Amino acid sequence: MNSVQSLIQPHFLAQAGFAGVVTLTFAGALIAVFPRNILYNVLGLIVCLTGVAGIFLYLGSPFIALMELLIYVGAICISIIFAIMLSRPLHLSLPKRHMFKVGLAFGVGAVVFLMLSTIIYSTAWQPASVRSSDWSVATLGNYLLTRYDLVFELISLVLLVAILGAIIISGYARRRPS
Amino acid sequence: MNSLYTYLFIAALLFSLGIFGVFQRRSLIGMLIAIELMLNAASINFMAFNRFLAPDPIVGQIYTLFIMGIAAAEAAIALSIIVAVFRRLRSINIERAQELRG
Question: How is chain B split among helix, strand and coil, in percent rounded to 5?
């Protein structure tokens, strides 16, 4: 009885949820990197990004978590799936992978992880002395339209140019005799 | 769960997986997926610093939003380049995209 009661305590539930979210993230990331079938990679990316949205939820921002789901899972993954359908027939035989190259890539990744964790451990992280506790979406919108106005406009310009550039690049390749 | 180090290690591991993917894959779409993983690791870092260190907890969220916008633009451009390369070479294997080799 006692153990059941300790199982449903909020703190334990939060821990279990966090462990589940982190597991989801890394399982998705492994699926996104390892299998050779490109469609499995995209499905793994979707799982991984859902886990990252959960991590954002634990970091205290439901708005960013929803934006992660909307932009990454809803837009980027779907357009990657479109590009897969436009490019390569999936039933063709997959190219062989060289174990030497995979080992080399694993070495590079391990070195980068070691460097990053050394930096993380050797830095004394100091929280700011005065911290505001205002997390609301209303303040976020207020900042976006006042202090970060220029960046906001610039990113909409960047998106516009990216869309035009994408149309022009793919259309130009179609007209060109190969 | 409530320490900065946990989130920083999650982000570092995700970033290393992304680097491993970029070096290991030969299809362009696979490399794009690995790059998305690395961008997500950067977002987690920003959100973690925002949660534990920053004086104003709005700025990190704004940074993360901008990273998402840049990632969307980058994905659009990269996918159109991939489609153009496929139309020209009938393959998206980067080891076959060697027309400029001297």
Answer: 80, 0, 20
Domain extent for A177: 136-178
Give me the percent of chain A exceeding a pLDDT of 70. 88
Which chain B residue has its CA at the smallest distance from A144's CA?
B62
Q: Where are the domains of chain B?
A: 4-96
pLDDT digits (tens, 9 = 90+) for B53-85: 888 888 889 999 999 999 999 999 998 888 888
B96 inside 8 A of chain A by CB: no
What pTM, to 2 d.p., does this model score?
Answer: 0.87
Give domain B4-96's CATH architecture.
Answer: Orthogonal Bundle (1.10)
ipTM given for this complex: 0.89
**Closest chain B CA to residue A70:** B68
Contact B58 A68 (CB under 8 A): no
Task: Please list every residue in chain A whose beta carbon sits closer than 8 Å to the beta carbon of residue B51.
Answer: 59-60
Quick one: B74 exposed, middle or buried, by C-beta within 10 A (0-12, 13-18, 19+)? Answer: middle
How many structural domains compose chain A? 2
Short-list B14, B34, B28, CA closest to B83: B28
Name the more confident of B2 and B50. Answer: B50
Contact list in A for residue B77 (CB cut-off 8 A) is: 162, 165-166, 169
Question: Which of A91, A119, A149 is where one domain is finished?
Answer: A91
Rounded to the nearest angstrom, the gap between the alpha carbon of residue B7 and the centroid of all alpha carbons in its chain is: 17
